[in-house]
């Protein structure tokens, strides 16, 4: 299972979707703006940037075992569409400290976390990855629909367009086949 998440200041992760409460939405957008410039109000920080960077990424969970692999450092949510390249035989890195990556092997997407002392791996059926990525896109589209209620009406459309472009929310996923 894949879920889009943002890393909060306390190193916890909050899932991002259209079901965020107003307080959670404020927390998410404030974190995004503060990550870019903690000296400026969040809306201004977001709108004054060329590219929004979101600490977090895709959280990988194995529902059968409860094993979780969190996004690593520098593996922001803006890179979530890179998971599609795994199906084409590529390798996708989603952070470090510890090193985390996904690769396709024998019809299985192996998601690795190079932890010390014991590395962790979650196997996802490759045939299910397109549906998982579409579910992530659905969650992000739902999140995007909430943005208009957070920003002032005169700036809401601008913020939604910037978030959509930066996070590649509504663009085609580039899935092979």
Give descriptors for this structure.
177 residues; alpha+beta; four-stranded antiparallel β-sheet; 5 helices; 33% helix
Model description:
β6 (100-105) and β7 form a beta hairpin. It is globular, with a radius of gyration of 16 Å. The model has no long low-confidence stretch (mean pLDDT 92). The two termini are 22 Å apart. The protein is of the alpha+beta class. The strands form 2 sheets. Strands 2-1-3-4 form a 4-stranded antiparallel β-sheet. Strands 5-6-7-8 form a 4-stranded antiparallel β-sheet. The chain contains 5 helices and 8 strands.
> Unreliable stretches, pLDDT < 50, 5 or more residues?
none
Which strand order does the major sheet show?
2-1-3-4
Mass-distribution shape: globular
User: What radius of gyration results from the CA coordinates?
Assistant: 16 Å
Quantity of strands, as a count: 8
Give the integer mean of the pLDDT values.
92
Strand content: 15-25%
Sheet of most strands: 4 strands, antiparallel
Distance between the termini: 22 Å
- By secondary-structure content and strand pairing, the structural class works out as alpha+beta
| Number of DSSP helical runs | 5
Helix and strand string, N-terminal first? EEHHEEHEEEEHH
Instruction: Tell me the helix content.
Output: 25-40%
Secondary structure blueprint with pairings:
Elements: E1 2-7, E2 13-15, H1 22-36, H2 42-47, E3 56-61, E4 68-69, H3 84-87, E5 91-93, E6 100-105, E7 108-113, E8 120-125, H4 129-146, H5 153-167
Antiparallel strand pairs: 1-2, 1-3, 3-4, 5-6, 6-7, 7-8
């Amino acid at each position: 299972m894949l879920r889009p998440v943002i890393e909060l200041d306390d190193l916890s992760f909050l899932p991002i979707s259209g079901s965020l409460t107003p307080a959670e939405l404020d927390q998410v957008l404030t974190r995004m703006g503060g990550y870019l410039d903690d000296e400026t109000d969040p809306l201004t920080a977001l709108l004054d940037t060329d590219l929004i960077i979101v600490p977090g990424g895709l959280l990988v969970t194995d529902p059968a075992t409860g094993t979780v692999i969190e996004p690593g450092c520098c593996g922001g949510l803006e890179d979530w569409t890179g998971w599609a390249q795994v199906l084409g035989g590529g390798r996708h890195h989603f952070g470090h400290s510890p090193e985390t990556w996904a690769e396709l092997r024998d019809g299985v997407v192996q998601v690795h976390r190079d932890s010390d002392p014991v590395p962790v791996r979650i196997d996802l059926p490759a045939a299910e990855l397109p549906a998982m990525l579409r579910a992530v896109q659905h969650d992000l589209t739902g999140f995007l629909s909430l943005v208009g209620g957070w920003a002032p009406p005169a700036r809401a459309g601008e913020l939604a367009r910037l978030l959509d472009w930066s996070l590649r929310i509504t663009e085609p996923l580039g899935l092979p086949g």
